[in-house]
Write a structure and sequence with these properties.
Keywords: Membrane, Transmembrane, Transmembrane helix. The protein has 123 residues and is an alpha+beta fold. It has one domain. The chain is 50% helix and 13% strand. It contains 5 helices and 4 strands. The chain has a 4-stranded mixed beta sheet with strand order 1-2-4-3, sandwiched between helices. The radius of gyration is 14 Å and the shape is globular. The mean pLDDT is 95.
C-alpha cells in the first residue's frame, strides 16, 4: 500500500512533470549553447543537430524533451528518442538515476529495450 502511494506521488505526477520540465530547460540551454546545426521540432522533441561529440552520449542523448546529436536524426531514431522523452515524463529527475542503475549495455538496459533497440541503432 505504501509503495503504491509513493509511486503515485513520484511517477506520472506533478513532481515527475516538474522534473521533466527542468530537464527540458537544461536540454534547451545545453542545445542552444552547443548546437551548430539546424534546430527543429520533430516527434514532439526539440532536436539539436551539430552538437560536438563531447556534449552528448553515444549517437545522441535525450534530456527531457530535447534530443542532442551531431546528425543522428532518422525517423526511427526519433521514434526511439520519443520513448525516452516519455520515460522522462514518467520518472522526472529520477530517470537519470534509474537509467544509470540499468547499466551501460544497451542490450540489457530496460529503458533502451523499451525504446526499441533496432530503432535506436543497437541491433
Amino acid at each position: 500500500m505504501m509503495v503504491r502511494a509513493v509511486q503515485r506521488l513520484l511517477f506520472d505526477s506533478p513532481i515527475s512533470w516538474l522534473g521533466y520540465l527542468y530537464a527540458t530547460a537544461v536540454g534547451l540551454v545545453w542545445g542552444f549553447v552547443w548546437s551548430t546545426g539546424r534546430v527543429e521540432r520533430r516527434n514532439g522533441l526539440f532536436v539539436f543537430r551539430g552538437m560536438p561529440l563531447r556534449t552528448f552520449g553515444r549517437g545522441g542523448s535525450c534530456v527531457g524533451g530535447c534530443y542532442l546529436t551531431a546528425q543522428n536524426v532518422t525517423d526511427e531514431v526519433l521514434e526511439h528518442e520519443a520513448v525516452h522523452k516519455r520515460q522522462w515524463q514518467h520518472y522526472g529527475m529520477l530517470f537519470p538515476f534509474f537509467y544509470l542503475l540499468a547499466g551501460r549495455d544497451p542490450l540489457r538496459n530496460r529503458f533502451e529495450v523499451e525504446a526499441g533497440l533496432e530503432k535506436g541503432g543497437y541491433l
